[in-house]
Amino acid sequence: MFSDVMVNSTPSDIAVDIRSVTKKFGERTIFGDVSLQVRQGEVVALIGPSGAGKSTLIRCVNCLTPFESGSIMVLGHELHGTNEAKRGPSREMLKSIRTETGMVFQSFNLFPHMSVVDNVALAPVLVLGTSREEAREQARELLCSIGLSHRVDAYPRHLSGGEQQRVAICRALAMKPSLMLFDEPTSALDPELVGEVLGAIRALVDRGMTMMLVTHEMMFARDVADTVAVMADGALVEIGPARQVLDDPQTDRCKSFLSRVLQQKAPSANTSAPSMGAQIAADAPTQEHEQARDTDRKRKHAEEVER
Ligand SMILES: Nc1ncnc2c1ncn2[C@@H]1O[C@H](COP(=O)(O)OP(=O)(O)OP(=O)(O)O)[C@@H](O)[C@H]1O
Ligand SMILES: [Mg+2]
Fold first, then answer.
1. What residue spans define the domains of the chain?
2. Ligand 1 pocket residue status of 25, Cβ below 6 Å
3. What pTM value is reported for the model?
4. What is the distance between the terminal CA atoms of the chain, rounded to a whole angstrom?
């Protein structure tokens, strides 16, 4: 899969360097003094309770939302907090960051009036100036490599959620990004469709793609991520090698988050506490959690569509 995906690299070994970033919405601080580095070729999974600010953090990385203080270096481009910078990023810098960074959201946001191949070919034509013919050819190759050769001429409404999300991944890859940002790419999918999307992401990991991955799929994070960062209560409460953080968390906040995830997975008949690692399967959200996420999902979907 993805044999022809080019993994670009920038001169620095650090792809993303988030330094002491504080983000507010109005008067409310969402997170403060957050620092995190992503090396070239590294996969960093961002986990944590709903509303912790995971999506907001990766949206700061590709300039979908501004932040108040601190700085973010992304693929060699330096972004500064609005309290500190005299002016925001230039149009050229925004274009570079968005071109070099692929983002996949939980809602697929394909253009409904365009065929699958045209959805994937659109950005290279508009942004990179690739000829339509060449862009469509490249789109076909990408779609074939992800097992969608039979769907290239279909329209999004005729695709399953898993297929639509794989098209969305191809659309991001069509720009030959150096960095992929995934925001809960499987959370809008029926459980039986999750595997095919995770398989596509895993293939990218195997190709050495640098990634920030917001996910509630703990087993997957444990499996593919080099580093896990846990966000809670307005901070990154724990950062470390994936298995270490998930199997043997050090902070009380991380322990309580993971044990809640495990409890949700463990049947009530299970009297002993489940061991970390072996029993982390997936984060089954509570009904309350689901409702909160549903509201957020609708708001974010509206924002994404607007954009
Ligand atoms: N555009 C916005 N305006 C105001 N508040 C916002 C906006 N976007 C996010 N928030 C708030 O910021 C907080 C963090 O939101 P965010 O979506 O980043 O959380 P999350 O960790 O991704 O949660 P989930 O796991 O549910 O996706 C939430 O309380 C959310 O309601
Ligand atoms: Mg989110």
1. 14-93+104-306
2. yes
3. 0.85
4. 30
